[in-house]
Amino acid sequence: MILVAEPSFLDSRTPLEIVLILAAALVGAAFVVFLSFRLPARTLLGVAFVLGVLQFFGPFGFTSLGLLAIAALLPGAAWRFGRDGANLWLWLLIVLAVWQTVSVLWADKLGSAAYGVLLTEALVAVFLIARETIRESPQGLVSALRIASPFVLLQALLVSLFRFFPDLEYAYLTSPIARILTEPGVELIADGSTENVNDVFKAGGLFLNANTASLFLAVVACLYAWAALQRPGRRTFWLFLAVVAVSLDATLGTGSKTPIVAMVALPLLAVFALVAVRRPLVALVVGVAGAAAAVGGIALIAAVRPRLLDETIRTLDERRRLWDVVLAQVPEHWFTGLGFGNWRLTIAEEWRMTFPGRGLQLFPPHNLFSQAWADAGLVALLLTVALSLGPIVAVLRRIWRHRDDRLLSRGSLELLVVFVGVSWVLTHGMLDTTTFLGDNHLVPFFGAIVAVAFSERLGRRQDERVDSPPAVVSQAA
């Protein structure tokens, strides 16, 4: 059973240890801030990608050293690359960071609140840097992805390897290096933890949670697919295709059920949108026929092989019960939410009524909108809705703008893979424990694909001129 009140950073160390650790963290952050003003944008983004994979967990729990370093890029990113202005999505993201900082006032744990604020600040930094790398040419982002390629391949290959050899996964999870590269809680695996990655049918690679690994690999595959379409050179092209193929295979290898549906449904939705803006009547007929076929297929499976749906139904029932707990708290805390860290106390109090006969497990709400409200209330919920839908709407607008272009073209493929990437995060987050930006692993890659979604270059012919504002600093990408 997981303890309700796990020892915090402040409670588990002596005053001298706290002072020394915080001093080291401040020195490290100052060094990263210095680098954020000096290094080229593509190098900063490449390092952020690498830290997204490796993270380096330390004394601050889920607030990894990697997340701290990415968030520390914000001063330099804002000063150097923020002068071109902010679109509405970026302004909403900044407002969310400010509101999350305010909501610290009613948080149960300072660490939980700091984690949420740092996630948002890291996304602001990465979005600004990624936007700069593609301002003049997509090759800056391509170069950053090239830097991260070996680490992404390592994560994807480990997922596949661990799926076939669960004993090897157990050996890694109980090794000292896992305490650094894998999320807190990995130390409980040796004691028989029920963490879902400790399952012969699931594998997370370097990540503790297989579902989180699945989301990460899917979005990364979409970003690398976009990059492969930018004519990066023969060797880089084949390298990126290898990353896409291995990542998509590993996404299924995690054992998560989401990619089984998303890998089919989201590309079909993208194709539907691409066809609908050109041939609305054809798209309508095909859409109705496809929906009818999907309903019929589900009904057939339920009649012939009902066991195939049992686990899905059980999972959905668990989620429904958790959402009922969230809804029950709304009348009393409708504006402020529960506060960062207070969900743990709430689910502990409601557990026996919600899951009678089961031992206590501190399940999160398993819905990104419910999580946003629970953490920081109504304002955070509304901002999360807008931030989740914004990139999807941006891609759909590009699809409409390029409705006169050929359907079978490089631009259409770009629009398809970026639509799938930004939509996957929302789709996954409706039933799992993530935020609108995924988690600390996904932040740099999500920031990059969102920058692509809002880029004027998305969907354009490569010989088509893109007007951009004059640079206000020397070219850093």
UniProtKB/TrEMBL annotation:
It is found in: Membrane. One of its GO terms (molecular function) is ligase activity. InterPro entries: O-antigen_ligase-rel_domated, WaaL-like. Residues 243-384 form the O-antigen ligase-related domain. The chain crosses the membrane at residues 18-37, 43-76, 88-107, 113-130, 142-165, 206-229, 236-254, 260-277, 284-304, 372-395, 407-426, 441-459. Keywords: Ligase, Membrane, Transmembrane, Transmembrane helix. The keyword Ribosomal protein does not apply. GO terms for cellular component: membrane. It is a multi-pass membrane protein. The keyword Membrane applies. Signal peptide: none annotated. This is O-antigen ligase family protein.
